[in-house]
Amino acid sequence: MTRSFTYQALPMRVVFGAGALAKLPDEVAALGLGRVLVLCSPEQEETGQRVAAALGERSAGVLAEARMHVPIEVARRARELAAELGADGCVAVGGGSAVGLGKAIALEHGLPVIAVPTTYAGSEMTPVWGLTEGGQKRTGRDVRVLPRSVLYDPELTVTLPPGLSATSGMNAIAHAVEGLYAPDATPIVSLMAEEGTRALAAALPRVVTDGSDLEARAEAQYGAWLCGAVLAATTMSLHHKLCHTLGGTLDLPHAQTHTVVLPHALGFNQPAAPQAVAALSRALGGVADPARELWELAGRWGAPRSLAELGMAEADIPRIAELAVASPYANPRPVSREAVESLLRAAWAGEPPSPLRN
Ligand code: NAD
Question: Could you tell me the residue ranges of all domains in the chain?
Answer without folding.
Answer: 13-157, 163-357
